[in-house]
Amino acid sequence: MRRQLLDHAKAVARFAPVKPAVKAGLRAALAIFVPMVVGTAFNLPGGLWLAIGGFNTSFVDKGGSYHARARAMGGTALAAAVSAAVGSLVGLYPSLSIPLTLLWVTAWSFAGVYGAAANTTGNIAATTFVIAVALPGDGPMHALVSGAMLLAGAAWAMVLSLVLWPIRPYRPARKAVAACFDAVADYAEALSRVSQGAREDSWQLLIQEQHGRIRETLELARTTLTATRQGRVERGRGERLLVLLEAADAMFMGLIALAEDLESLGPPVSAVGDPRAAVVVALLDCAHTARDLVRLTEQEGRTRRPQPEWDGRALRDALTDLDTRGLLTRLERARLLDVARLLTELRERADVALDTACRLPGPPVAGMPPPKRELAEETHPSLLEPLRAHLTLDSEVLRHALRVGLTTTAAVWISSIFRPNHSYWVTITVLTIMQPYTGPTFLKALQRVLGTVVGGILAIAVSYWLQDPRIMMGLLFCTAALCVSLIPLNYGLFTVFATLTFVLLAELGSGDWTLAPVRIVNTLIGGALALAGTFFLWQRSEEERFPAQMAEALRADREFFGVLSSAWRRGEPPQAPALAEARRKLGLATINAEASFQRLLSEPRWSTEALEPLMTLLAFTRRFAAVCTLLASRRSVPSTPAVHEALARFSAAMDEAMEDLADAVLHGRPPRALPPFNALIGWNVPTPDGPGLALGQEAPLLQSQLERLARQMSVLHGAAARRMEAPASPVSATQPSTNNMS
């Protein structure tokens, strides 16, 4: 427990590796204070709702295409306005407010079935409703005025975000695609450092730190570009951005394959000279080219095309020198030639990207490579289809909606009995803290409570020393901008400045300068209710969810390998669309499994299974995929009958073993023994059908790569077996063992 408490304390104080959202903070501050000043100057009724509408609508603006932003902000404004009007009416009738709160909050929490944007809208609508219930008006006209004023504040926030800031329709997509090349550059630089002879576990750390992050960056760019291009007649710039996105994805895959080849080289192949020095230089030059692509993609004007001078020729020259001295074995030479091939292909992809990026701002140019595949258009399924799919207690969304609805209703009921000052602070705390998963809820509760205490203490100090309204308004503008700017860094820090801002606003409006302790007490009550609802209402531990996520990632690995094996059976390279789709599915499935594991680590648990086997499963799922990526980069395999027979046997055995492994992880049973992979790929080991196939004599590099794949599978199998044998006791979260990884 001490270790867990220490881990949670570190998580509360952990800062995300991003920059503060300064522009978003200033925009949110303007969205709040301009309506307040206007409302005060003209003595408008419902000035609070003007500020709430402006703040919530600016808060929901998460970037992306302008069409998607306008739709999200407008939908949120309408939902919040209706919630404000209905809540103001319901608040007049306490006996009606309890059941309607249950229905309204549960329904809006269930909106998460339509995605993350709908979940944010639903949370804002539910929060607005409970505020309106706690601040009832004096009749229907007051309720309509509340909704109308909220819409007015929201309209100002939308004008501020979408009109007063320069509108460049493709700017979000350009920045998203540029971020992909920036991630590729980071990966190339890290790979150059690791390949110079770092620790043995550096290769594993490289995969853990880079692969998931880059895949998420690529998916974000894909989503942003799809939304930007929807409904547009102009196709030139959109198509060129698509070519750039494909080039970034292809360069990422090329670097993964290159890393696998470099790791398999082991120590320097020659005491006279290591040809990998040429690879290190080429990787650094590749990183510089990727940085050039970042600049070219982000800027609007035409520019001179950079002329990179790196490829695989320097490595081939070094190999020729070593070969003439007889310092290379056949396998070493084959591996290094494969590295040279991958570098040359990487340069070709970079050339396509450079040509396209230089032509990005202008009209279509003849000869520009067309995109190999279009982005999938956003589908619009029936509104009822997601609802039907989640109308079961097995659905995490429904369980969370019911949990939030019941807990919020309990908070409203308690407030109606004890009538604490600013009772809506209790219900807002409940709605803010409760997350679909236990771990994030616990972490957010800690951040919310600690942030409120610190912010409350600061508010007490400020209100004691400073009560001049004009100076106070200037200070509040700064704290409002700070609280929104700091959201990406740390939620607890956001809570500190949000508490300071809204407590001082409430004190300034009411003239009561003693509200900070009220805010702290109400937050403690709301936090306790949120944790009680999370732990006692249909809680499902992440230990129950993780096996399904891990099995899905393993099956995605199996599907990725299946694309390769089917191509081998046809005697041709894998089809690019099928390969890209399988690779993307694998990346997303692995990201989901890793997110589930992180939630598992953040859950407060009295006991837990050993973590090392789970970490090894996650780590080597990506390593298995990396070897498959290297195999997929091969343009052909030897077409002799012996090779085809060896590949057929190996593929069938690997497919069966991967499915058994996924099933074993899902159902918590030991996996069956692995087949004799070394006999199947022909290490001259006898098989039941006769002598082994000498695959190494005809295709030594292919055999070496299949051996590597079999070793990754062996590590995965061992981790699944250890998971069943490990005692249920805490194990420190160290890096997984790297023995036999290569």
What is the strand and helix layout of this fold?
Elements: H1 2-13, H2 22-41, H3 47-59, H4 66-90, H5 94-109, H6 116-134, H7 140-164, H8 171-194, H9 202-229, H10 236-265, H11 276-298, H12 313-324, H13 330-358, H14 384-390, H15 396-418, H16 424-433, H17 438-465, H18 469-485, H19 491-510, H20 516-536, H21 542-570, H22 576-602, H23 612-632, H24 641-667, H25 677-680, H26 695-698, H27 700-725
Helix pairs in contact: 1-17, 2-3, 2-7, 2-18, 3-4, 3-7, 4-6, 4-7, 5-6, 5-15, 6-16, 8-9, 8-10, 8-11, 9-10, 9-22, 10-13, 10-23, 11-13, 12-13, 15-16, 15-20, 16-20, 17-19, 17-20, 17-22, 18-19, 21-22, 21-23, 21-24, 22-23, 23-27, 24-27
Description:
This is FUSC family protein. Belongs to the YccS/YhfK family. By secondary structure, the protein is mainly α. Helices cover 73% and strands 0% of the residues. The longest helix is centred in the middle third of the chain and has 30 residues, at 236-265. The chain starts with a helix and ends in a 17-residue tail after the last helix.
Major β-sheet, in short? none
Question: How big is the Rg?
Answer: 29 Å
Stretches where pLDDT falls below 50 for ≥5 residues?
Answer: 363-368, 683-693, 728-742
Order of helices and strands: HHHHHHHHHHHHHHHHHHHHHHHHHHH
What structural category do the secondary elements indicate? mainly alpha
Tell me, rounded to a whole number, the average pLDDT.
80
Sheet-strand content, in percent, reads under 5%
Number of discrete helical segments: 27
Q: Which bin fits the share of residues in helices? A: over 70%
Number of beta-strand segments: 0
Instruction: State the shape.
Output: elongated
Q: How far is the first residue's CA from the last residue's CA?
A: 36 Å
Organism: Corallococcus praedator
Domain Integral membrane protein YccS N-terminal: 88-236
Region (Disordered): 722-742
Family: Belongs to the YccS/YhfK family.
